[in-house]
């Protein structure tokens, strides 16, 4: 069944204005205009982010799980795995954070927004526990997964991503970076995975 509802989740300090989010949205508008698209600005609190994602997708609850999908990048990839378990839907993880409660510990305190340096937020110690509460590592995937991992990722280790998602269809990029600057090249594979 083709995907009719798609959720995009940005990474830490990022936003729906990210290059990947904007490119994917344009791609959908140009080629899949019937698809319902949502890319919310995620709050700093993981608990609040989870609540927002459940609220955002509440109206999708009656849909066949096969028609829903989630795409997430970095921390958004971690969230995407959690959402996919709740909605029993397909998921695409792009350079996902696998243990954000560990990797984000060094980012406690005031942070600036990547796409608007004039905006800031406070990343609190309790958010690390909130991240652990959303951890679905070790649970069998509820639906097919696609993992896009860049071996040149300068922020996270691609080996951790591959180990975390043993059941996922794997696209291993030998040259790109954490932002997956060549994201455009993967649109055909994402289309195929989503059943378009």
Automatic annotation (TrEMBL):
InterPro entries: AB_hydrolase_fold, UPF0227/Esterase_YqiA. Pfam families: UPF0227 (PF05728). It comes from the Bacteria. SUPFAM superfamilies: alpha/beta-Hydrolases (SSF53474). GO terms for molecular function: hydrolase activity. The keyword Thylakoid does not apply. The keyword Hydrolase applies. Keywords: Hydrolase. Gene3D superfamilies: alpha/beta hydrolase. This is Alpha/beta fold hydrolase. It comes from Comamonas koreensis.
């Amino acid at each position: 069944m083709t995907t009719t509802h798609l959720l995009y989740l940005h990474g830490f300090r990022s936003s729906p204005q990210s290059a990947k989010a904007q490119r994917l949205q344009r791609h959908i508008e140009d080629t899949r205009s019937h698809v319902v698209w949502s890319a919310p600005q995620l709050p700093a609190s993981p608990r609040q982010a989870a609540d927002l994602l459940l609220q955002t997708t509440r109206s999708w609850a009656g849909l066949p799980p096969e028609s829903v999908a989630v795409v997430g990048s970095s921390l958004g990839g971690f969230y995407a795995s959690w959402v996919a378990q709740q909605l029993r839907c397909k998921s695409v993880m792009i350079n996902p954070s696998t243990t954000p409660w560990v990797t984000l510990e060094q980012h406690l305190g005031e942070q600036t927004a990547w796409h608007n340096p004039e905006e800031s937020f406070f990343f609190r110690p309790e958010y690390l526990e909130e991240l652990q509460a959303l951890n679905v590592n070790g649970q069998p995937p509820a639906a097919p997964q696609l993992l896009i991992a860049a071996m040149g990722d300068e922020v996270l280790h691609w080996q951790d991503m591959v180990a975390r998602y043993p059941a996922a269809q794997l696209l291993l990029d030998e040259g790109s970076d954490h932002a997956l600057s060549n994201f455009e090249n993967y649109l055909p594979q994402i289309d195929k995975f989503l059943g378009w």
